[in-house]
Structures are given as structure tokens and as C-alpha cells.
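To: structure desk
From: M.T.
Subject: fold request, one chain
Message: Could you run this one when you get a chance? Sequence is below, nothing fancy, just the single chain.
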Amino acid sequence: MNPSPPKICETRKREKRWLGLVLIAVVVIPVIAASIFYGRFYVYGFLSARNALRTADAGFKKAKQTINPEELRTWALETIKRYPDTNDGSPSIPPSEIPKFVRDLYSQPPFDTIVLQRGSNQSSVLFMWGGGLFAWSIEVGQTNLISETNPEYPRSFTWVPGIYYTRESSWDLQ
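Reply: Done. C-alpha cells follow.
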């Protein structure tokens, strides 16, 4: 005699199957959707930074080809004399005083240009571009100026002694 299995077993199987479907609907699908949604921002951010890196490097290469570094240094050293060290921090240089050949390096002029005071005879002019996810700068000083790098700006490229291009990336020039 083979008794037929009780109906409770079939009900439990259906309950387990239903519970599995609910688990997939409540947990797995939202996790996948969130990954796709937020992942696109990560990819977009990465591609944006990579594009900014190429733009920054292209501007530096353009500067090396079109600007006389000694003319830029002469302007910077005269500017340093006009904006002496103050206790209020690094003085900003008005955009109208920035040479046209620097303003035109990129589609936008530098967002800030300051005189950095690093002790006696180590002042420089710092042109800064970018912002947000990626920033870069060109620093101009005496020929004995040494570029200071830090974890945020790990790469510094020498144009000529005392003039440096620095950016937020450890990658080589693009």
C-alpha cells in the first residue's frame, strides 16, 4: 500500500518557491538596479576625469609650443613684486592682469591665479584650472624654484627650471 503524500508537502513547496520569488523581487532586483544606476555615475566620473586629464595635458603641450617660458617668468617675477606677502594669505591676481597667452591656453581662463610665498626668494605665481573631480596648475618662479608635490597632486612636470605643470593624477602625460 502506497499512501498518497499529504497535501501539506505541496503547499510547503509552493510557499518556499513563493518566498524565493519574493526574496528575488525585494533584494536581488533592487541591488542590480542600484548597481546599474550608480555605476553609470562612476563610469561617467571616470571618463570625465580622463577627458579632463587629456585636456589639461593638451594645454600644457600647447604652452610649451606657443609660449616663451622666459617671457612668462619675467611677467611672473614682476607680478610677485607688485603683490608682496601679506598676513592674509596668498594674494590673488585679477584676471585682467593675466597675460592673454595664459588665459587662452584652455577654453576657460584660470579659475584663480595667486602669488605663493614660500619663504625668502621662493615666491611663485600659480595659475589654476579645473576643479571638482580634477584640477591642474602651472607654477612659475625663479630658476631655482623646486616644485612641491603632495598626495593630491602627485605629478609635477618640469617645463624649464622653475616652471612646473602639476595635476591631480599619477598617470604620465597623455
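Reply (cont.): Strands lie at 112-116, 124-131, 134-141, 155-160, 163-167. Let me know if you need anything else for the meeting.
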